[in-house]
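My main concern about presentation is that the manuscript never shows what a single data entry looks like. Each protein is reduced to its one-letter sequence and a matching series of backbone shape codes. For the editor and my fellow referees, an illustration may be useful. For illustration, here is how one protein appears when written out as sequence plus structure tokens:
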Amino acid sequence: MTLPMYTIKKVLNNSVVICQHDTDPEVILLGKGIGFGKKPGDLVDPASVPEKVYQLTDKEEQSQYQELVKHVDEDFIAFMQEIVCFIETSTGKKVDEHIHIGLTDHLFFTMKRIEQGMEVTNPFLLETESLYPNEFALAERIVDMFHERLNVLLPDAETGFIALHIHSATTFKNVLEVNRHNQIIGQIVQTIESHLNVKMDRTSLDYKRLLRHLRYAVERVATGETVEAPQKIEKVLRDEYPLCYSTAWELIGIMERELKRPVPRGEATYLTMHLQRLTSR
């Protein structure tokens, strides 16, 4: 990253400084050792900064991060910057700057809960692995880094939560929205099992296919994207598999109610096909 010549306004710690370039708005620069030995008025020479420096430019994000730095250990702040760099390098994607706040805050307080002997659970762990396999694999490596570097053994539940933060940051979606969509999918799965009187195998390929379909269906509805299906196919499915067809419309009702958006009719056709495959197995 090529930086302009910033003037340091305040040093928050060795890895976090508040800076300004000429009359531009203030930014927070994050980089291991970037504030070491610095004081207000010093310049941040672009030639001497760490290889990877992050800029927090959003005012609200800056305020939240400054408050976070007050409560979080300096070494942990630096370690989390390495984690974010690892995520960017591994995915080849630029991340939403909010991950510096969201993931740091989440993992710091998770460690506090572990120290206090509190249990961390994640009822949607298997679903998260199926929905976001690449992010989940990356989260597993981050859990290993915590063990190797900090001697902290994060519970399995955290792998799922970290994966959601990675997905949120690399797709620039609010992590609360990602969580909300997962909750809707969980509600849909419960409805399927109840209406069709089945207990789905969470490890089966059909279940993973269903989850992926539900994920993209929910995202399509949330963004207003439409999907079409031939009316002839819909009629055949309705006549041949009435229970699956009526259940599909129950699921559409859940999406419309929770997302407060209309669901294209074509979604019912594809949902019916997935449900029929599940029941036939």
Remarks:
- The first helix runs from residue 59 to 71.
- The beta strands are 6-13, 16-20, 27-30, 43-44, 54-56.
- The first strand starts at residue 6 and ends at 13.
- DSSP finds eleven helices and five strands in the chain.
